[in-house]
Every structure is written in structure tokens, then in C-alpha cells.
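hi! just following up on the protien thing from before. the input was this:
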Amino acid sequence: MERAILAHFQPENLDARFNDFITKPWRDVFVAAVNTLQTADELLLQIKRRIDAIISADKKIQIFFSWVNQKALLADATYKPPAVRAFYFSQAVARTFEPRLARPLDFSHAVYRALKSDLQDRALARRLDIDLDYAFSGQPLDNLAPDLLIDTILDCLLVTFARDLDLFMTFARARSLPIEAELKQALKRFKEQMPDPESDRAAYQQWWYETGEIWTRNLRLTIITHRNIGYDWQFDEQQHALLRQYSEANKLLIDCLDSSLKVSEDVREGVKATLLLPIAEIEKFRRGI
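and the predicted 3d structure came back as:
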């Protein structure tokens, strides 16, 4: 079957088997087929249009990608913009694609999973920027840009036990993370509201039973206000499916860009520049705005 596809591959037939080609078993076959073409420019542009069309009609998903773009634009990081967009995209949908992240055991486990293990499967960011690739391997907490590190850990706090707030604040002080004074004071107030789980576990458990839900909701609102992260997007099943398809299709596109020598530099850079953008921003890019 693989040889038949390679022998008879025609770019104009892309739509008929697009959903097959984006699955992992067929991805390498498709990339090999792309490399048999004299030029891959038009095909990769066709793939990019096909990918953008997956999410173009869903208003909520478009709002989500506008948020991803805004976070990337404001992030204090030296990584390329598509890589930072991939970081926030992956972070926001991690629990959609990876249910095991929904209830991490503790703070360190959550951070480890969010920064390393899960990104081995959702490797958009690592494949878009070699610097970000380095940040996600070896010693991720030491190498990740502080702005991205703060956002990741605060996001993890929203799904871990309240006692991990103290651990985060200790970690932030030890690493001299640049957390704004207002947010730092707000987090301190949240910490002061709860009993010490080490000295009186029963009191802590009772407090959590009676107050934990409201406390977490208020913490979420505070994090959203100060860092613009932590939204509960509440995507429905159809939106989950669209985001998964979109993610897998982008991996295919990046594989093609990285492996093909038959792509002009203008097309390569143009495609990468518009990865993970809302449709409105893609249209602005194409018009040169």
C-alpha cells in the first residue's frame, strides 16, 4: 500500500485522503511522497489552507487562537513566535488531549508532565524552534524562559492541591522569578486563607471540603486577571475533535517543512509565520498588513 501511494501520489488528490495522512502510521509515507515532487511549494500551501479550514468556522476556537496569539506576542521570551504560540496552545489543550493531566498527584508531577513527558507526544513547540526544543529537554525548569515558566506553574496550580501554592511561592523566591508585586501579594493572601496541612491536616481537609471550590475559583480569576491564563475553555466534543485534528495536521505540515528540500524559502517562512494563528491574523499576513 505504501509503495502504491508513493508511486501514484498526486497533490490534487490530497483532500480525498487528508484525514488518513495526518495519522501517525501514514505520516512518514506522506512525507516521503512529498519528497518525490519536483517542487513542494503548492502542495504545502494547499495543506496549510486545508489545516486552517479545519477551525475557520468555529467562533469559539477562533477566540481561543486569538488568545494564544496575544499571549505569544506579550511573552518575554527569545523563542520564535510560532514556538511560543505552540507552547500556549499545548498548555491550554493539554488536559483535553491527555486526561491523565486532569488530576496530577502533586505540584512537581504536574510541572514535570506539563513541561516534559506530555510534550514528547505534543511536540509542536519542540519542532518549531531549536531553542525551545532545548528548553523542554534535560533541565526544563532551569532553561525555560521565566515568563513561560510562571504561566506553566500557575496553570498547574489550578489542578493541584491548594497546599502547592506554598511550594510555588518558595520555588518562585528561590528562582527569583519576576512575578509582579500585585500578583505576589494576592497569592500571599490566598496562602494565608488556608490552614497549614502539615501542622493540622484535619483542619486543612475540613477547610478544603467547605471552601476549596470557592478558593480555587477565586484563584483562577486572580491568575486570569494578572497573567491572562487559566481559562476553562469548556470545548465540546466536536471542538475537541477539531483541535485534535488540527494539531495532528500541523505536525504533518511541520514534518514536511523540516524534511523537504524542495520548498522555496519564501513558502517555508510564510507557512511557519502563520502557524497556530486565528484566521483574521492569517489574512492580515497575506495582505501584508
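Residues 6-158+230-286 form one domain.
Residues 99-140 have pLDDT under 50 and may be disordered.
cheers
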